[in-house]
Each structure stands twice: as C-alpha cells, then as structure tokens.
Amino acid sequence: MIDSKDFETVIDIRNDRDMQLLRNIYAYGWSEMSLAQQTMLPKLIDKDTYNDVSFQYPSGMGKSGVYILTLLYNLSRNACVSGLIILPTRELANQVYTVSCALARNLQINICRCIGKEALSDVNPDWPTIVVGTCGKVIDVLCKKGGKPIRQSCFLEYFVVDEVDNFINDNHNKNLHDLESIVKTLCNTDTHLITVSATFSNYVRDFIRSKMMNKDGKNIEMYLDDCEVTLNGITQYYVDLTDIVTRQNVFNAKIETLLDIIPIIGIARGIIFVNHAGHAKQVFDVLTEEKYTCDVIYGKMNQEERNAIMKKFAHSGTNFLIATDLIARGIDFKDIACVIQLELPVNMEDYIHRIGRSGRYGKVGKAISIICGEEEQHDLDILKDKYEITMKPFEFGEN
Q: How many Cα atoms are found within 13 Å in the side-chain-facing hemisphere of 109?
C-alpha cells in the first residue's frame, strides 16, 4: 500500500485523456483513494506487469473503484468489446454502470449495460468498449449464435467478476456454469481476469486459482483472514427472544421487537433484512401502519418496480428499506446508519455483506440481529467464532 491517498500518485498523466479521468474522479466526489484503492490500484494500473488478479476487501472499501479505474485507464475506444464486468444482480450491475459512466465522461469510451430486456443496441448503436451486465444476459447477447450476437467483435483485455463467491460454491450450480461459458467463449490467453469480493471461502480461492487464473503467469492474490473481514466501524448487537417467545409467534414477535428498537436507536435511515418476500411485505405493512416511511424490494418484483424503488430510496428521505438478499451485496447507500436483521441469512457469508450496507467508506454504523430459537443461536455463535466478532446484547434503554 502506498502512503499517499492522492490519485495523482497512481495515475500518470500521459495525455489529455488521463487528465480528464482525474477530473472525473474528483467531480464524482472521490477526494482521495479508499483503502482498497491505495493497496490495489498501484498493482493494477500497469497492465503489463501481471496476468490475473484476485483480491478481497471488506464491504464499503472501494473495491469497484479499483477495477473501474483500471479499465478506464488502460482501455481506449475500439471497435470491439475490450472490457466485460459481470455482477450477480441487475441492481448491482446498474450501480456499477452508473459509476462507470460518470468516471468515463468525455473519455470517448462507450459503456453499455447488458441486463434484463435491454439489448446493447437499445442503449447505443456503436460497439461498446466496456459491457457491464449479468451472466445470463451477457451469454444471450455476446456468446450465443442466435439473435444478434457480437461475439466476433469481442477481444477481451479485461474480464471482471465482482462478488465472485456468489457465482462459485460447493455445488455446481447454474451461476458457475454460466461463468464458465463466458470464460470459454469470450476470454483469450491475453485476457486479464479480475475476481473481487468481500468474502472468499477456501473453496472459492482454490477454485479461482486452479480453474480460472493463468497457471504460468504472474498473478496477484490478496486475501484477508476471516477476522479482518468485518468492519471496525460497525457496532454489532443481538436480541435473543428464545426464552420469551413461543415458536408459533416467532416472526410476529420479531416485528414487535423491531418496533421497540426503532425509537431507541433513533435512526433516520436503515435497511431491514429478511429471507422471504412474504416476510418483507409483512414488515412493510406493519411499519407503514406505524407511520414510518418505507420501501420494500425482493426478487419476484418486476424489474421496473425494482428500479423505481432503488432510485426512490437513494434520493429520498424514506426511513427504511425492507429487503431480501437481493441488495445484500455491493449496493451503496451512503447514509445508512443501521442494518437490522429479522432473520439470519441462509449463507453465512451474506451476514458480512448485509451489515456492510452501513458503515460505508469507514463511517460508523450499527448492525442488530434479532434471533429466536436454538438454531439461530447456534448460527450466530458460528458467525461470531468464524469472524471473531464482538457482538453485544442490545440494551432496551440508552444505546
């Protein structure tokens, strides 16, 4: 990691285009490099010094800025797709696309989004230099022979997979199959692979190293111990209802506890996570009845609804967003003071991603988990041990 946080110490001004990139960085509001950018940008900015890259940083530390700036600095406008960024959800793809476009202003780099029903030709008739999208749509547009593929116009210099552990797990699932299809179809021996996430299991690390990275090249790997993954700026609490709630009324009791917590913590903005759409709607109805301003989002909604909710919550004073893990990863709402979990996530790693929606970029935040029953007690104990979390019981008084 370099000592200076100034972008000028990493981005050499070779021409007017590089100067414009610096202007765009500061205009976007990045006054200095984040911790991830201080560490990784000096390693990635010179593309001739490495082959493939895999790195890990906690949520909210500027990981996406590392790969976006790397691509914008190293790619020029070509009559082909030179950079491809894959993300697990449309919401996250939209966010990365928006940031990329802002940083690419006046660079003559065409960036296109490849999600949902949106075709590349719908956005811009010119060949894109960089495509930001989700796996399934990228396969439909760039890889398949049917329709209007542009596979012949792809020569990838960079292939980025963000939240890579979401695509790779112990089971050979569709996400992994799609990822392998993209690598086989679009990547070449000179393509720089960049894999990024806040969480990497040993299985994911080994898979990337053995199945994806260049075995004969100079690769860069930077991983954290589990105890380094959680953010120091987030104070973590739990409420255990096991001894006071009957099993039949567990979720209702959790909602009642939520209503007790909200006035105590006195937050203006927060995210409430649940595991199911039905529970999300139930919480939304109760909070709305209690006169809190709320939005609710889950995967079964159509894309237009989801887009409208994300835009509204990002630019309004709405108190709470009630959500499933659709937005657990990567989504950046800069003013979230607290994350409350009414249900622990199904995948242990998603706990880290969820609480990382608060405490962004080194700010302080709170995370409160409401649990009930031996199973959730056991899961919470595993989380605390794995990530060496100091988690306090929430006090229903001055907090």
A: 27
Whole-angstrom Cα distance, residue 278 to residue 41? 43
Of 39, 104, 94, which Cα lies nearest the Cα of 68?
A: 104
Which single residue is written with the structure tokens 């199945």? 211
Per residue in 173-200, pLDDT tens?
A: 667 888 888 888 889 889 999 999 999 9
Burial of residue 143, with CB atoms counted within 10 A of its CB: 0-12 exposed, 13-18 middle, 19 or more buried: middle
Q: Rounded to a whole number, what is the largest CA-CA distance in the chain?
A: 68
The answer to whether the CB of 355 falls within 8 A of the CB of 339 is yes
- Rounded to whole angstroms, the Cα distance separating 276 from 34 reads 34
Distance, CA of 142 to CA of 119 (rounded, Å): 11
Q: Residue 116: how many CB atoms within 10 A of its CB?
A: 18
Give residue for tokens 């990981």. 63
In tens, the pLDDT along 40-77 reads 999 999 999 999 999 999 888 899 999 999 999 999 87
Q: Report residue 56 as tokens.
A: 């890990």
Question: In 3-state terms, what secondary structure has residue 332?
Answer: coil
CB 346 within 8 A of CB 275: yes
Q: Is 322 left (phi over 0), alpha (psi -120 to 50) or beta?
A: beta
pTM over 0.90: no
Torsion-angle region of 199 (φ positive above 0: left; ψ -120 to 50: alpha; else: beta): beta
